[in-house]
What does this fold into?
Amino acid sequence: MEKEFLKIEKEALEAINLVADRASFNEVRNTYLSKKGVLSDLMSKMKTLSQEKRPLYGQLVNNLRSKINEALEVKNELLEAKELEEQLKKDKIDLTLPSMSKNSAGLNPFFVIKDEMEEIFISMGYEIADGPEIEEDHYNFELLNIPKDHPARDMQDSFYFSETMLLRTHTSPVQARVMQDKKGESIKIICPGKAYRRDNDDLTHSHQFAQVEGLVIDKNITLGNLKATLDLFVKKMFGEKRKTRFRASYFSFTEPSVEVDISCSECDGAGCLTCKGTGWIEILGAGMVNENVLRMNGYDPSIYQGFAFGIGIERVAMLRYGIDDIRRIYQNDIRFLEQFRAR
It folds into this structure.
């Protein structure tokens, strides 16, 4: 019995040694290791043996299998090295050819500002929340105190897929979704993302833009907390010399509502063409969360208060870098982006 196995081993190792390419390698491997190969045939004979002979027979089969596998692994490594060498010869690079030119520029100012705004608010303890851009009317308007046929909808004319589905007009629906999820819990989030409105009347507006909206809900929240938050944000974003000013305004989801101005960096509040002689530049809208919004989203207004704000990312970028046309931010013109390489 052992002589038979030694003969098969010798034949197998000689066949493996003669292998010169991948096709002959596969042929030898299949001859000995496939389901219909030599080793499978040997194993099938075990049932014809007596109980006393089976252990020795099984050991001989396994030893033979191990030696064939080991020889095949060595041969496979040699073939792989040979194949790699041949491939490298085919793919040889001609170093005398001219190199490919790859023009690069700085980061788009949109992403510079977005990342910086997120870092500022994260350092103040805010978490980032996200939501769908194709939104339900229920979240985009109704839960934010803007019922059907309300005049406030005219300011947020958007792109509709059906009577109830539209491209969101602000990132406030994310706030509504978070409030619905955390009913009765404290909230401190920002919601960065794209918004869409049928608005491209001038060089400072586009039908697509991005916002960073914020929402804080807790006990004993006041307008003073909002003022301190935005004042700190403005100083970190535009410099320690910048001042903030609140002006009364109207937003359906906040009451009271304010427009927030910052002192002009060009003239330091004295008045110039940039600020149209006023010394101030409008930058964002904010206010205390309307009691109806709190109530609709599961918060008791007698216990919880909150504030919200919305900042246009492109608006901040245009003010920070003196960009005259919002479309420059979206066009990825390398001549424009090169100006922000150092920044």
User: Anything to note?
Assistant: The CA atoms of residues 79 and 314 lie 58 Å apart.
